Amino acid sequence: MSKALIAMSGGVDSSASALLMKRAGYDCVGVTMRLFDYEDSEVRPDKACCTEDDVADAVLVCLKMDIPHHVVDFKAQFRDAVMDPFVRAYETGCTPNPCINCNRYLKFEELFRQADQLGCELIVTGHYARVEHNEETGRWELKKATFLEKDQSYVLFNLTQEQLARIRFPLGTMSKTDARVVAEEGGFKNAQKHESQDICFVPTGKYTDFIEKYTGKTYPHGEFVDVRNGNVLGEHKGIIRYTVGQRKGLGLALPQPMYVTKVDPEANKVYLGLNEDLFTTTLYADDVNWISVPALRPGETLKVTAKVRYKQPDKPATVVAMNDGRIRVVFDEPQRAITKGQAVVLYDGDTVVGGGTITGLDE
Question: Are residues 120 and 7 in the same domain?
Fold first, then answer.
């Protein structure tokens, strides 16, 4: 009997996944990661994750299923791998996606080490995605969830071949309603639990307040500049407060709607433009991970579809491998508000080809 580590968040998805694996005959062990102390925060929201109540819910589910449960303290690793890069991104004019780093460094690095210590062959999470082995290529593939409205493949693009070989996503072919039905069948009290929506370490939802408290810094005001003619339009309140595509919260009386088109931390300037100034066809990305294909050789090209944010449909594009390990992604049609710090994820149909972190774009 194979032994499986179940990543137990206390939510309905991980609970349903645990029950499905137990039904399938696996020897299951529940593990809950403690990543952040809400005692350090002024507000504890109803819709955040990783709270003490979530840990308690995970314990109850494991007791209900009569499987062992462990709580592991990864707060130091979480600070280093997720919180610190989150702050650095905003300080350097980028917009981070902390869930990507959390999946990469916590859920699928630290948990693999934990699995090895517990003698578990498999890692199981409640993500909505699929893993399949391609017999023709010999590679493990990450695929979109069957129900696209819940698909989470975008935030999982960093998974390696070694990891995919040991990962199971029991909910990959199920809807959220299906998952709740499974949890109800298990008699779990969290079967109708709300979904976590906020960034767990930004409990108020105000990330600028978090950054200032976390760093102890105040960020200097600077100029809003018209991206077309260089005219100064007013004073901004610190570059961490602005991200590409932003329209609200500028605090300016303008004759027409204007949007953040670029954040320049070195000059401490925020550039504004019209909606059409947000569109571009070409981006550059580094820290690239290839999944369904071997890494492209420099100069090699590949037709794909690609997406530059989590909820965006993927669009036709061509990816070109560069000499320095980066990729250039050229979309067939201009895309709106491509943002440094976000991920570009490449697809071939429902299969993830690979992905990387956006570092720049043609201007």
Answer: yes
pLDDT for residue 357 is more than 60: yes
CB 129 within 8 A of CB 340: no
Checking DSSP bridges between strand 301-307 and strand 315-321, what pairing results, if any? Answer: antiparallel
Same domain? For 265 and 289 the reply is no
Give yes or no for a contact between 319 and 304, defined as CB atoms under 8 angstroms apart.
Answer: yes
CA 319 – CA 346 distance, rounded (Å): 9
301 contacts: CB under 8 Å, gap ≥ 6: 318, 319, 320, 321
Catalytic annotation, residues = 102, 200
* Residue whose pair of structure tokens reads 């774009």 in the numeric block: 361
**Whether residue 115 sits in one domain with residue 10:** yes
Tokens of 109: 């690095």
Question: Is residue 284 located within the same domain as residue 268?
Answer: no
Handedness of CA 236, 241, 244, 245 (dihedral sign): negative
Spatial distance between the Cα atoms of 78 and 215, rounded to a whole number of angstroms? 16
Which of 199, 158, 172 shows the shortest CA–CA distance to 45? 199
Per-residue tokens: 345: 């994820």
Residue carrying the six token digits 């100064």: 232
The whole domain housing 347 covers 278-361
Q: Which CATH number characterizes residue 89's domain?
A: 3.40.50.620
**Beta-carbon contacts of residue 22 (< 8 Å; ≥ 6 apart):** 28, 65, 67
Give the integer Cα–Cα distance in Å for 158 and 141.
12
308 and 243 fall within a common domain: no
> Could you tell me which residues come within 8 angstroms of residue 127 by beta carbon, excluding any fewer than 6 positions away?
13, 152, 156, 169, 171, 172
Closest CA to 355 of 171, 173, 160, 138: 160
Confidence (pTM) = 0.94
Residue type, 182: V
Rounded CA-CA distance 295/235 in Å is: 45
The CATH number for 233's domain is: 2.30.30.280
* DSSP state for residue 39 in the 8-state scheme: G
Q: Looking at the 3D structure of the chain, how many domains does it have?
A: 3
293 lies in the same domain as 336: yes
Q: What are the angstrom distances between the C-alpha of 105 and each of 109, 155, 328?
A: 5, 12, 25
pLDDT digit string, tens, across residues 72-128: 999 999 999 999 999 999 999 999 999 999 999 999 999 999 999 999 999 999 999
